[in-house]
Design goal:
By secondary structure, the protein is α/β, with parallel strands linked by helices. The chain is built from 23 helices and 21 strands. Helix 2 packs across helix 4 (about 50-60).
Length: about 650
């Protein structure tokens, strides 16, 4: 770092314009990186007095959260050196400089840390191997090149998807190829300026403790991008993957269809699918047509493009992201619309109600419908019986609707709750697999899904369905992450089942409400961006822990679960890791949860209307409309109270 820049940064720190952490992280980066773009970008921002931008880029170093690494790959202010030869409307030539950014520096550090972890823990012959995929986001190809170089030059083999592929297909590939780890470069449904780096273990699930902390320790011990490559004869090899795994993956997805004859009988069911410029178009439309569904796609959104140019946000749970597909569905009189996010691990739907209006379902409602149908189908087919139902399992997160609990209890099967993050659901699947005797477990790749299911029903738990309210679902354990492609198959079958009864999916959901009571869920997410926002989020989380409410919206608080400070075990007796999450239950059945997001600059509030804990929750069809209106009013009232209480607490911080 030149002396003028050093003096400028020291003066800004002393004046309070640059935080001490930002100053230290800038110093560490510039002292340990040989990339001239880094110093030139910092110097330009400092010269222009853009201290807020520098603080946002450097107030921390990216760390693994519920989704691995995730951050901006393009700054809010793009420097001229980052812009490079790119035009004003083009993607910058170089990614955003900063320790709190997803760039070459952090990609190299993360990969080197992972490689060192693998080398220390590798058993057996040969070199450790990593499977690598990317979605359609900016800098994905460049970041993949960096991962490949760092991995192979340090002694790991690499299985590289040459073209964009979905996150669930990466999880599948790790297991199918027998890789020691997996990496997918994605920021899920975040804005175009973000990218991310998710790490998977040999079981195809996202890393959990203790491996997560060990990898983080390896990463944190690395400063800079330089390393001494191993001798040529010890380096790894890149094995390119093109489309050869697509068919293997689709054969497994086909097993998710529980009643092929039902689908054939409803061949006039019309689906409009959109991948919203992401990876979902690679597999999902093919699967739907292969299984006998009528599927059209949105041509303007078929194009894989990291700008996601036809939407404000590539998040399919937002109505705006599905507008083009819904418009096309109106023109073609399609029954349902299905959309997946850029890395195709999440799926959202819009369906026609009884009046013919296209209606968005929530992630909780989609999950409840799929859970109900899959349990019903397995019992109808005799796969699940009174004798083995205690070996059938539903897995969901704590913040996912309790309607899934009611449905599981009605069928007499087990249900277990995990923390937010599909890695915890994946961890449960690993546990159930490990409970099968090794001599019978064998290699899952050599067994049919029916064979692995029978082993679980005999020795452990057969995973029927799992999911989280944020539009993530899984219907089998041949992979270990939420799967938008698989969810497309499962929900299309639910829609076909409803159609076979002369119902829409909305009317099928109403039948569940009549049987189990009304469950309404929603969110409020308070966005608090940058260094100041991050501090506010942490302070607010501590405030709720220290001073939880005694009442909310006129109802007494009967239970507070503070997952940050208290010890809990789940329904199977397994300890639950500490997490900054608070769940508040009210006397009238309503509830809310508070947790800082692990991947976005938000503090999230999950809000629930549930049947009263006293009395029969069932509702007659004649009373359903009035009961739904009353429930909605009580839900909105609680939401207003939560937002007002949150803002009051923020003002006092």
């Amino acid at each position: 770092m030149n002396s003028d820049l050093s003096n400028s940064l020291e003066f800004a720190r002393d004046e309070g314009d640059l935080t001490p952490d930002s100053f230290q992280n800038i110093s560490d980066l510039l002292s340990n990186s040989t990339d001239p773009v880094n110093e030139a970008s910092v110097a330009e921002l400092a010269e222009n007095g853009e201290w807020k931008e520098l603080n946002n880029r450097f107030f921390k170093t990216l760390a693994f959260g519920t989704g691995g690494l995730r951050g901006r790959s393009m700054g809010e202010i793009v420097t001229s050196v980052e812009r490079g030869s790119a035009g004003p409307d083009d993607r910058p030539e170089f990614p955003c400089v900063g320790t709190n950014a997803l760039n070459s520096y952090n990609i190299a550090r993360a990969t080197l840390g992972l490689v060192r972890f693998l080398l220390k823990n590798h058993e057996g012959e040969g070199k450790p191997s990593i499977a690598l995929a990317r979605d359609t986001r900016h800098f994905g190809s460049e970041f993949a090149d960096i991962v490949g170089r760092v991995a192979t030059e340090n002694g790991c083999d690499l299985h590289l998807f040459v073209e964009p592929r979905s996150t669930p297909q990466l999880s599948f590939a790790v297991r199918h190829l027998g890789a020691d780890a997996g990496i997918v470069l994605t920021a899920s449904h975040n804005p175009p300026h973000d990218n991310g780096y998710k790490v998977y273990g040999a079981d195809g699930a996202q890393i959990v403790e203790p491996a997560a902390s060990q990898i983080v320790a390896e990463v944190n011990a690395i400063f800079g991008e330089s390393y001494d490559a191993v001798p040529e004869d010890q380096r790894g090899t890149v094995h390119e993957i093109r489309d050869e795994l697509d068919e293997v993956y689709m054969e497994r997805l086909e097993s998710l269809l529980l009643d092929p004859e039902l689908v054939k009988a409803q061949s006039d069911l019309k689906i409009v699918f959109t991948n919203i410029h992401g990876t979902g178009g690679r597999i999902s439309p093919q699967m739907l047509r292969r299984l006998g569904f009528h599927c059209d796609t949105v041509a303007a959104q078929d194009v894989e493009d990291g700008w996601f140019p036809t939407v404000k946000s590539p998040n399919p749970e937002n109505a705006e992201a599905l507008q083009m597909a819904m418009g096309q569905a109106e023109e073609s009189n399609a029954d349902i619309v299905i959309g997946t996010d850029p890395d195709c691990d999440r799926m959202a739907v819009a369906v026609r109600d009884s009046s013919g209006k296209m209606t968005l379902l929530t992630g909780n409602q989609i999950g409840a419908l799929m859970e109900f149908y899959r349990l019903k189908a397995f019992f109808d087919q005799g796969v699940l019986t009174d004798e083995n139902r205690d070996h059938a399992m539903i897995v969901k997160t704590f913040v996912t609707t309790e309607m899934q609990t009611a449905i599981a209890q009605k069928f007499g099967v087990n249900i277990v709750n995990t923390l937010t993050g599909f890695k915890y659901i994946g961890e449960k699947l690993g546990k159930y697999e490990a409970q099968i005797p090794a001599d019978e477990r064998g290699d899952y790749r050599e067994k049919t899904d029916a064979e692995t299911r029978d082993l679980r029903l005999k020795y452990s738990q057969f995973f029927v369905f799992g999911g989280e309210e944020s539009y993530g679902y899984l219907g089998a354990d041949f992979l270990r992450d939420k799967d938008g492609n698989g969810a497309v198959v499962m929900f299309a079958e639910v829609a076909a089942y409803a159609k076979s009864l002369g119902l829409t999916p909305v009317e099928l959901l109403d039948q569940l409400f009549c049987e189990h009571g009304i469950y309404l869920e929603g969110q409020h997410a308070e966005v608090l961006a940058g260094a100041d926002g991050a501090a506010q989020i942490q302070a607010l989380a501590k405030e709720y822990s220290a001073n939880p409410p005694a009442e909310a919206d006129g109802s007494e608080v009967v239970k507070v679960r503070d997952f940050a400070n208290d010890d809990f075990t789940d329904e199977e007796g397994d300890p639950i890791p500490k997490e900054k999450m608070l769940i508040v239950d009210l006397a009238d059945g309503r509830a809310f949860a508070m947790r800082p997001s692990g991947t976005e600059p938000k503090i999230k509030f999950y809000i629930y209307f549930r049947p009263s804990p006293d009395g029969d929750p069932s509702i007659s069809p004649e009373d359903l409309a009035a009961e739904k209106a009353a429930a909605q009013e009580k839900f909105e009232s609680l939401k207003e109270w939560i937002v007002a209480d949150m803002k009051s607490r923020l003002e006092k911080l």
